[in-house]
Amino acid sequence: AFACIGYNSAFPGLSPDGEWAVYSKPEFDAGPYLRRDLYIRNLESGANTRLTWGERACYARFSPDGREIYFARIEGHDGSSALCAIDIATGELRTVRSFAQWRGAIHSFAVSPDGRRIAMAIWRPGGQQDIYLMSRDGGELVQITSDAAQDCDPTWTPDGRHILFSSDPDGIYNIYSADTQTGEIRRVTNVLSGAFFPAVSPDGARLLFVGYGKDGYDLFIANLDIASARPAPRKHDPIPAPEPYPEYSGEIKPYTPLAHMTPKCWLPTFTGDTLGLVFLGLDPVGFRSYVASLGVDLANAGPSYELVYADQQYSRFPWTAAVSGGPKGNAQSIAMSFPIWQDPSFSGGLTLGYNHSFHTGEHLHLLVAEGDLSKTIGHDLFRSTTSLHTETALASDALSGPWTPGISLELANSIRLPMLRDSRLVVQLGAGWTGSDKPADRLYIGGHEGEYRVRGVEHGYDSGTHVLLGSAEYVVKLVPIERSPGSASIFIDDLQASVFVDAGSAGQQFTLASLVAGVGVELGVSVVPGYTDARALFSIGLARPIAWGQEAPRPQSDFTIYLKLSGNPL
Which residues contact 523 (CB under 8 A, 6 or more apart)? Predict the structure, then answer.
């Protein structure tokens, strides 16, 4: 039987009685640092128990008696690691041995059947990854291999005499055995497309391994007879002492992000009646970023501007600030987020903000509370992410009040389809309500951007105190570009396209009588500005209305062409 431990759970190991699995799972709530902590899961009940907090565990295995769990922990900024052990019953954690003095990184390891020795694959500077044998207390350490081949994934035969591992001394990975008494090495498999992750049956007669064939990676079983395997002597390449880190002779100055936040790219854009340029900038460590735009409001014959700044230096409390303005007025906003759950498969948080705008001689103040939940499930190429966004706002034309309430929510499901890896289907449903019928407080639908967008009809197409929305969109990657234009610090990733249908209605109550629907296509370029993992999508779209209800106004045009910038490429 198979059990799904969870999305993004790494290198699970089985307990000796077969009832538990140990695995490491990433945690993203530790400031800018990535942590991986250990969990055990009861395979019958499905219950999970967390064993560590704030560790950097990357590989874990049970001891033969099932009382302890050994794991590799990353210790240094250079990736060096230590072998640690934790008592499952008491939670007591101990360091068995650190390899920081080598700058050594533990790739994988296995505990001998009698629990007295540990076989490890350790990488050391110079590119060598060899097999080592160590006593369980971290004392005696014997090097089994010493050459340029990449040795990994050691495991033991049931009698504790031989270590089996995957290695590529001739350029192709095969399974090899090392005799712990004589040091003799033999080649157990002889495949042409690779053999990895060996495992031996309890009686020692069969070998299970991962192999690569015409259909991809598969599991293979073979008879195991080490005595008849061909000897494969390995040359001994001494490991040179690691070179010391070079000393920096230049002047060390305090880090000032503003000195590095010149715009990394720009692009022309057309939003509604505004034609302009968009600029993106961010600092080298990715804690601060901004999007700025300068343009001309063609309908009102005047300049316009917008600046959105995001600061994640304190990632537990990231905040954003924005200012914008044009011929009709200006707006300012500030918001701070409070992440509550930050698991790769389940996340959620709260955002509090204040917005102020001054348009056509009227002030509007908004106090906003937003909540977000997201759940991801996946299997093979299939992945489904369901998200819920809620927003509660209080609006007033004066800080002294009175305040008018408003509520909106959006439920979305994004599915990565198994037939194509680089595609997704996104379905969204939304609703909004405001307690005020003033023109400045009403909810407006239409346009290709904004909370209540309906692509295919104009901005501000219809308004009301009640809004319903729905959309379905299929997005697919067309062509990988993966180029950087000249010496510019911008990377063009790929070209992608989407086809969509949007629908929405606005009125004095929730109704479908004023429903309007539009369809269209978008063609976008995914780019990475600067040298970080931030991504943006620049798109051009063509949309048209296809239906509108008897109480809905007639759209002003049959077709709409637009440019937009968004942050959710494939």
Answer: 495, 496, 497, 539, 540, 541
Q: Nearest to residue 7, comparing CAs of 534, 349, 348, 385?
A: 385
Retrieve residue 250's tokens. Answer: 């230049």
Residues 22 and 15 sit within 8 Å (Cβ to Cβ): yes
Task: Please tell me the pTM assigned to this model.
Answer: 0.69
CA–CA gap between residue 459 and residue 449 (Å, rounded): 9
Other CB atoms within a 10 A radius of the CB of residue 395 amount to 21
pLDDT digits (tens, 9 = 90+) for 181-226: 999 999 999 999 999 999 999 999 999 999 988 778 899 999 999 9
Residue linked to tokens 């303005």: 325
300 in a structural domain? no
Q: What is the CATH number of the domain that holds 109?
A: 2.120.10.30
553-563: buried (b, 16+ CB within 10 Å) or exposed (e) per residue? eebeeeebebb
User: Residue 528 falls within a domain, yes or no?
Assistant: no
User: pLDDT class for 421, splitting at 50, 70, 90?
Assistant: low
Q: Is the peptide bond before 344 cis (omega within 30 degrees of 0)?
A: no
User: Which among 71, 67, 102 has a CA at the least distance from the CA of 84?
Assistant: 71
pLDDT tens per residue, range 285-336: 778 889 899 999 988 889 999 999 999 887 678 999 999 999 989 999 999 9
CA distance 226 to 200: 12
- Residue 319, domain member (yes or no): no
How is residue 283 written in tokens? 């600092």
Amino acid at 297: D
Report whether pLDDT(408) > 90.
yes
Tell me: pLDDT of 561 over 60. Answer: yes
What span, in angstroms and rounded, lies between the C-alpha atoms of 462 and 468? 12
Range name among 177-191, 211-225, 411-425, 442-456 with the lowest pLDDT average = 411-425
- Domain region containing 129: 10-231
pLDDT for the residue 495: 93
Residue 308 located in a structural domain: no
3-state helix, strand, coil in the chain (%, to 5): 0, 60, 40
- C-alpha 210/C-alpha 419 separation (Å) is 24
Q: What pairing do the DSSP bridges indicate for beta strands 57-62 and 68-74? A: antiparallel
User: What are the beta bridge partners of residue 372?
Assistant: 349, 389
